[in-house]
Amino acid sequence: MIKYFIIGLSLICATSAFAQKEKPLYKNSKAPTEDRVKDLLGRMTLEEKVGQLSKLLGWEMYEKQGKKVTASEAFKKAVDERHIGLLWATLRADPWTKKTLTTGLNPALAAEATNALQKYVVENTRLGIPLLLAEECPHGHMAIGTTVFPTSIGQGSTWNPALVQRMASAIATEARAQGAHIGYGPVLDLAREPRWSRVEETYGEDPVLNSQMGVAMVKGFQGDNLKSGANIISTLKHFTAYGVPEGGHNGGSISTGYRELHQSYLPPFRAAVKAGALSVMTAYNSIDGVPCSSNEYLLTDLLRNEWGFNGFTVSDLGSISGLVGSHHVAATPADAAALAINAGLDADLSGYGYDKNLLEAVKAGLVSTDVLDRAVSRVLRLKFEMGLFENPYVDPKKAAKVVKNDAHVQLARQVAKESIVLLKNEKDLLPLNKSLKSIAVIGPNADNIYNQLGDYTAPQPESNIVTVLEGIKAKVSGKTKVTYVKGSAIRDTTTANIAEAVEAARKAEVAVVVLGGSSARDFKTEYQSTGAATVSANEGGQEISDMESGEGFDRATLDLLGKQMELLQEVVKTGTPVVVVLIKGRPLNLNWMSENVPAILDAWYPGQEGGNAVADVLFGDYNPAGRLPISVPKHVGQLPVYYNAKRPAKHDYVETDAQPLYSFGYGLSYSKFAYSNLQVSPSENQGDVQVKVQLQIKNTSSRDGDEVVQLYLRDKVSATVTPAKQLKKFQRVHLKAGEQKTVAFELNAEDMMLLDTKMQWIVEPGDFDVMVGASSDDIRLEEKFKINKAVQPLSLKTSK
């Protein structure tokens, strides 16, 4: 009996060993990633390789019938015939995708949908390669039922990278729980053109602030373990200099020299890559005549060879085709595919840029097998590193519990509170007393959930969103009468009820007027193939939507649209104290209200908890400390008007001065702070330099609060022209009433370097000014230091 048992055991072991021997190396989770990639590449056909680079529009890939979700026939066809390896925006819902609260997916169904898609590719393809699923995640995962945070311009206003990292981690957790692997964000474009429609998606005009926020997003998204089930790959957008289009035209031509490109527009991307970002998206624009999607210098020489980037690059939607149709640098789609992939562009967001065109290019000898394998390996590598070959599925029950949980909602409220900028508070009108007998809440953005959320937001149940009106009602006692009158729309001039608003203001002790703009997409708007709105100056007598911002809605002026200004002026005439709350996506013309309204709050697009956050600030339960991440001009004729423009200083115009109405870094508090005892200590040794900066900051008021301490640097004399002032360090500091703290910074060579006349990074010997204060135009302390010897930072080599 024992003999037969031993024989049987031997047979089992032999069979197991044989099976193990036959198992492909790429399916061995213990094998090194590079070996797995090489093994899988060697097994793939040309068509399978090309398919791995195609990222199709994902919302067409599932079918929903009641509570059941399955892979669609369109998806099965794309997999069977085109061997696709990636999808984008599978869970996206908005008017462009035509996915509503009814036709779209809740978190549990979303998880079931992504599971169904993965199951099909794993079980019905020759090699069983799982999908990489990318989602829009700039201020929350753009899917039904997720947490909606303030848009990026509001995130930038917090000047709190640690808080933004917590937010990004929450977004990643929600997206990953539903089956996503890649989050599009952060957007690292410098917003130096406020007419541009996508200002709300940026962190503002400054490279240092953008860098810090970008690093925070990358760390929050990716964490330290991509196999955790709670982290996603971060895709940096848009590489590069996309945010300064001529005339504000989205996707239009930009004009910048290579020195400015390297000193201003590229540093946020470099910082995010250094932080470990694993994906980069190209921009629609060209630089010095070379489109970003076929720019070998950007995609290979700089990104990979100089910065050491080890992830994969992806086109913006349709930008490979744009090499033919927009830029006219390629004669045929195959030529465009060859230009892009040879330059270092790995994946095609659209599915029609590469696909058959790339196959044609390879067969015609325009693209080598090595180049194709290089791109495919970059995509496969991340699929292995995320553990998708071992575990491509997610738990729908977990998704239902994790998404929009109470902790994330409270975090959304905290980010919104910290993002609010107090622009004016004459005679301490704010904070308001909760025992006021009557408050008039007026304006088109006082009780409109979608106007509060910004672009890249999914449909929302009304119960998920707290408007300003609702926040105020929840804050005051039952004895306070709160009267709401809309007064006007954002743009439409045919539906105003200004007289009713004036009457409500006249009878109230205070009027809170909520104005601004909107990025709320609607089902009446036409959309381009890229998802940007189609905008016409002639509405043809149709009902006009509120949307005046968001992708595609570029502006010629920055004035309040519709009858908003008339509404405000008539309310102010009543003599009732007025507080203006601004909800919007870009700087607007605030000249009149700055002169005539005693209190102004800028809330940007504050997200789902925006109403509670605004009420917290209005009534003093939260002391505002947000600071402007972008300058507010007095007139479009001043543009550009960013604070760190190169010298010489701008002179005044005939009609107005050259200064912005509110400068970068500006923001008030209910507290007062005193700066003192600035100490600057430089040290130089062995080709390096450090400058220690220390000061005292004191809360001289009777109210606890935050102060954002900002350190600016000026190179007194430089080989090439530099700004008169450049932010280098900042710190948001909490101080109790009467408390004093020491704030310390350390500058290094990279903070002081410039590109010299030979395009070499160098810290030149000479004098520097350290300026510390509460904003770029409110410098409280200043001190000089001297560098005696030139220093070339070791981490940066020659640039172009």
UniProtKB/TrEMBL annotation:
Residues 707-776 form the Fibronectin type III-like domain. GO terms for biological process: glucan catabolic process. Keywords: Glycosidase, Hydrolase, Signal. Transmembrane segments: none annotated. Residues 1-19 form the signal peptide. Pfam families: Fn3-like, Glyco_hydro_3, Glyco_hydro_3_C. GO terms for molecular function: beta-glucosidase activity. InterPro entries: Cellulose_Degrad_GH3, Fn3-like, GH, Glyco_hydro_3_AS, Glyco_hydro_3_C, Glyco_hydro_3_C_sf, Glyco_hydro_3_N, Glyco_hydro_3_N_sf. SUPFAM superfamilies: (Trans)glycosidases, Beta-D-glucan exohydrolase, C-terminal domain. Belongs to the glycosyl hydrolase 3 family. This is Glycosyl hydrolase family 3.
